[in-house]
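Take one protein record:
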Amino acid sequence: MRSRVLIAQVLLAVFTTPLFAAPLSVTPSDRLKDGGWSKRHEEKLAAPNRATAQVVFIGDSITQGWEGAGKSVWAHYYSARGALNLGYGGDRTENVLWRFDHGELDGLKAKVAVLMIGTNNTGHRKDSPEDIAAGVRKILDVLQQKLPKTKILVLAIFPRSAAATDAPRVNNDKADKLIAGFADNKRVFFLDINNKFLQPDGTLSKDIMPDLLHPKGKGYEIWAEAMEPELSKMLGDRPVKPVDLSAKADKAPAKPGKAKK
């Protein structure tokens, strides 16, 4: 009798245990032990422009850097649009999912969400392109569910590392090719501006990203200028005219947060 019970328990375990565990990239995970991360989360939940922002930026330290090296560029392009910055230094796809599950999309009525995430999945954990893309796919699913009237502009993960053949760059590029397939050009749009940051031979200059990962002021200027035609079309407003802001931007405080190389 006992043997039959044990066999039944084994069979139950076999047939109820997933054959493949979900990758970490799609499993919501917090970073609450990081006091700065927790504080930023609380601040963003209480941001006064949550209900009026036309544009919301979602991402990691590269996006958070609009508040540092990109501050003057942000003011020129996005302040009048009441933009909200939901970039957190060090975040991976699963951290964005946790933030979504804990109120960061509540009450938003943005016309456009700009998403760029995944480089820390490459840098921190060396996730496969498939796992990174799966994380982005789940983020898009949640965005569309919680913000049904918001269009989403997904950016290719920015280039990292000096040469096109360097492993982190290759991993991000492979993920980008998968992520591009998520665009339906109705609610979800994909934009790859990576070549704008690169030299003709494909190398990434420290004049644009000093640590070969985070843009300096000129990098944020390139980002804004390259994205503006598509963003203004999605918003239905007039494109913002470019001005030379990089000299001022590069005197801004150091970038917030830091992703691992």
About this structure: The longest helix spans residues 217-235. The domain at 2-249 is CATH 3.40.50.1110 (Rossmann fold). Confidence is low (pLDDT under 50) at residues 5-17, 252-261.
